C-alpha cells in the first residue's frame, strides 16, 4: 500500500532573547526535544511573532497565519543550533477520550499477533508477526552457542566438583535423583505442568544418574567452554543441542553428557506455550525440594557413616542449586526484554510512525507494528479475523500515541509496556530542573524521575517510583495487595543490594498503589498531583 505522508506543520524559528555563553545565537530555555508547550501570540509584524510561553517572551520567525492573542500548542522539533517549534493541531483530547476505555483492557498484543501469524499465508509478513508476537509474549529465543554455555555453567561446575567424590557417594546421589520425578508428581504444581515436568525430569535425571555412576575419581576441573551448536538426530528423532568445547582439557564426552541434560529442558520449554511460567514453576519446585526427606528414604542410617551422609546432603543441595540456577538463567534470558529492546520499543510499535514518514524513512515506518497492521487492514485477501484484529490493535496504538502526545505537553515521556505477561503497564519518564540559589549566583540542578505503573496477575497493582538526583537514587514501591507488601519487605535486603550500585539512598514500601489507568487519567487531567518519591 502507499502511505499518505502527513503535511509538514508550520514551524517557528525562535530568535535569541537572552543569549547564553555557549552561543550568541542560542535561546535560553529549558525545553526538551519533542516536548509540547502552550504559547500565546503576544504581538506580530514583519514575518515575526512574539511568543509568550511559561511567562517568557521570545520572537520567532514563521510563515503561519496567526492572530494576536491566539493560543497555540507548539512542539519542540529542534533545540540545536536554534530552537525550532511546530504547531500541533488542537483537538487531541477529542480523539483521546473515546479511546481511554481501551487502556482498561489487557492489549494481548502477543497472543493476537500469534493468532494472526498462524492465519496468514503471506511468507513476507508471517515471520515479522511471529517475531513481534514472541517479543510481546515475553518469550526469548532458546539460548544457543555461548549463551547456552553460560546458562549451563553452574551445572557444569557442580558436575566437575562431583568428580572428586567417591563412587559410593555418587551412587547415593544417583538414587536420590531417581526420586525427583515422583516427588514432582506429588507436588502442588498444576496437572499439565506437573506431567510435563515429571517427564522432563525423568529424562534429565536419568542422564545425571548415568553420569554420576560412570564418573571416575579425578582431580577437580572447572573448564571454560566456548560451544558450537551441531544439530544431531537421536533415535527418537529429537534434535538435541551439542556442545563442542574449544578448550583442549575438556573431555568431549563430558560436554556431550552435559548437553544431554540440557536438551530435554530446552525441548520441553520450547513446546510449552507459557514457557516462562513453566520454567518458574520448575525452578520453584527445585528450590523447595525436601532434600533431607528424600535422602532419609534412600539412605537409612545403617548404610553409611554420618560423615558420608553429611557429604551427600551437601552435594545434593549444591547439585539442585546448580540446576535451579541453570533453569533461572534460561528463564531470565527468555523473560526479560533486553534494555535495547525497551529503548527501541516506541519505534517497534510505530508510535513515531508519522514522524518517520515526514523524514522520508518510509521503510522504517513500514516495518513497524503500525505499518504492518495498516497493510493487513487493507489487504483484501487476508482473512476477515486478521483484518479485524488489525483494526483493533491500530486503535490500541492510536491510544498510545495520543497519550504520548498529551503527556509530552507536560514534558513527560510516555512509554507503554504492552507485554502479555502484564495486565497493564507503562513507564513515565520526566526530567526536572531545580534552581539552587548560591552566593549571587544561580546554579541549575537536574533530576530524573521514572515511574512504572503496573498491574500483574499474581502481585496485583504496583507503582514503582524512582528519582535520580545528583548521583543519588530514591525509590518508592507502592502495592495494592497486603501480601505483596509483605513479599517486597521480605526482599528488601536483596533489593537494597541490587540498587546500591545506582546510589540508593532510600527505599520506601507502602500499600498506596493506584490503578494504572486511573493514575494515567490523573496525570493527563488539569490540576494533576505530583508524587514526591523522596518522602
Largest sheet: 6 strands, antiparallel, barrel
Structural class: alpha+beta
Instruction: Give the quaternary arrangement of the chains.
Output: single chain
Percent of residues in helices comes to 40-55%
Structural domain count: 4
Mean pLDDT: 75
Distance between the termini: 53 Å
Shape label? elongated
- Whole-number radius of gyration? 30 Å
Summarize the structure in words.
By secondary structure, this protein is of the alpha+beta class. It has 4 domains: 11-90, OB fold (Dihydrolipoamide Acetyltransferase, E2P) (Beta Barrel), CATH 2.40.50; 92-138 and 337-407, no CATH class; 145-335, no CATH class; 422-535, no CATH class. The chain is built from 20 helices and 12 strands. The protein has helices at residues 92-96, 109-119, 126-137, 145-162, 167-178, 180-185, 191-214, 252-270, 275-287, 291-298, 306-335, 339-343, 345-349, 353-358, 362-366, 369-377, 384-408, 482-490, 492-499, 516-524, and strands spanning 11-14, 36-45, 48-53, 56-61, 71-78, 84-88, 412-416, 424-437, 442-456, 460-469, 472-479, 504-510. The protein has a 6-stranded antiparallel β-barrel. Strand 2 and strand 3 (48-53) form a beta hairpin. Helix 4 packs antiparallel against helix 11, helix 5 packs antiparallel against helix 7 and helix 9 (275-287) packs antiparallel against helix 11 (306-335). The chain is elongated.
Amino acid at each position: 500500500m502507499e502511505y499518505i505522508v502527513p503535511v509538514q506543520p508550520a514551524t517557528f524559528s525562535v530568535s535569541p532573547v537572552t543569549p547564553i555563553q555557549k552561543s550568541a545565537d542560542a535561546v535560553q530555555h529549558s525545553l526538551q526535544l519533542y516536548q509540547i508547550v502552550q504559547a500565546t501570540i503576544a504581538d506580530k509584524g514583519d514575518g515575526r511573532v512574539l511568543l509568550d510561553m511559561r511567562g517568557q517572551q521570545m520572537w520567532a520567525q514563521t510563515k503561519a497565519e496567526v492572530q494576536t492573542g491566539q493560543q497555540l500548542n507548539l512542539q519542540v522539533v529542534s533545540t540545536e543550533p536554534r530552537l525550532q517549534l511546530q504547531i500541533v493541531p488542537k483537538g487531541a483530547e477529542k480523539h483521546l477520550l473515546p479511546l481511554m476505555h481501551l487502556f482498561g483492557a489487557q492489549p494481548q498484543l502477543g497472543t493476537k499477533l500469534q493468532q494472526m501469524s498462524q492465519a496468514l499465508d503471506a511468507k513476507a509478513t508471517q515471520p515479522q508477526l511471529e517475531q513481534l508476537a514472541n517479543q510481546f509474549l515475553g518469550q526469548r529465543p532458546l539460548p544457543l552457542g555461548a549463551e547456552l554455555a553460560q546458562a549451563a555453567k553452574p551445572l557444569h561446575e557442580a558436575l566437575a566438583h562431583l568428580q572428586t567424590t567417591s563412587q559410593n557417594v555418587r551412587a547415593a546421589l544417583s538414587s536420590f535423583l531417581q526420586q525427583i520425578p515422583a516427588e514432582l508428581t506429588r507436588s502442588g504444581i498444576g496437572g499439565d505442568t506437573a506431567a510435563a515436568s515429571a517427564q522432563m525430569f525423568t529424562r534429565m535425571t536419568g542422564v545425571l544418574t548415568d553420569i554420576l555412576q560412570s564418573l571416575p575419581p579425578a582431580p577437580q576441573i572447572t573448564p571454560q567452554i566456548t560451544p558450537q551448536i551441531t544439530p544431531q538426530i537421536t533415535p527418537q528423532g529429537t534434535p538435541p543441542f551439542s556442545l563442542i568445547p574449544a578448550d583442549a582439557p575438556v573431555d568431549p564426552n563430558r560436554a556431550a553428557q552435559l548437553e544431554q541434560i540440557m536438551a530435554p529442558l530446552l525441548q520441553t520449554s520450547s513446546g510449552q506455550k507459557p514457557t516462562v511460567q513453566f520454567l518458574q514453576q520448575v525452578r520453584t519446585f527445585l528450590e523447595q525440594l525436601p532434600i533431607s526427606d528424600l535422602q532419609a528414604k534412600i539412605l537409612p542410617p545403617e548404610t553409611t557413616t554420618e560423615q558420608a551422609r553429611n557429604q551427600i546432603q551437601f552435594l545434593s543441595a549444591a547439585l539442585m542449586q546448580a540446576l535451579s540456577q541453570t533453569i533461572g538463567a534460561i528463564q531470565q534470558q527468555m523473560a526479560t526484554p533486553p534494555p535495547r529492546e525497551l529503548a527501541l520499543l516506541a519505534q517497534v510499535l510505530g508510535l513515531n510512525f508519522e514522524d518517520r514518514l515526514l523524514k522520508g524513512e518510509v521503510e522504517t515506518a513500514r516495518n513497524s507494528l503500525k505499518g504492518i497492521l495498516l497493510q493487513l487492514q487493507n489487504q483484501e485477501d487476508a482473512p476477515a479475523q486478521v483484518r479485524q484484529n488489525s483494526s483493533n490493535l491500530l486503535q490500541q496504538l492510536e491510544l498510545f500515541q495520543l497519550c504520548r502526545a498529551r503527556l509530552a505537553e507536560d514534558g513527560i515521556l510516555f512509554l507503554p509496556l504492552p507485554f502479555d505477561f502484564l495486565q497493564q503497564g507503562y513507564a513515565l519518564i520526566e526530567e526536572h530542573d531545580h534552581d539552587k540559589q548560591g552566593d549571587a549566583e544561580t546554579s541549575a540542578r537536574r533530576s530524573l524521575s521514572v515511574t512504572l505503573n503496573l498491574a500483574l496477575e499474581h502481585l496485583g497493582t504496583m507503582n514503582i517510583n524512582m528519582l535520580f538526583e545528583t548521583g543519588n537514587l530514591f525509590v518508592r514501591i507502592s502495592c495494592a495487595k497486603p501480601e505483596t507488601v509483605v513479599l517486597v519487605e521480605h526482599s528488601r535486603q536483596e533489593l537494597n543490594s541490587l540498587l546500591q550500585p545506582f546510589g540508593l539512598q532510600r527505599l520506601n514500601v507502602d500499600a498506596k498503589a493506584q490503578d494504572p489507568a486511573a493514575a494515567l487519567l490523573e496525570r493527563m487531567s488539569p490540576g494533576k498531583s505530583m508524587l514526591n518519591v523522596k518522602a
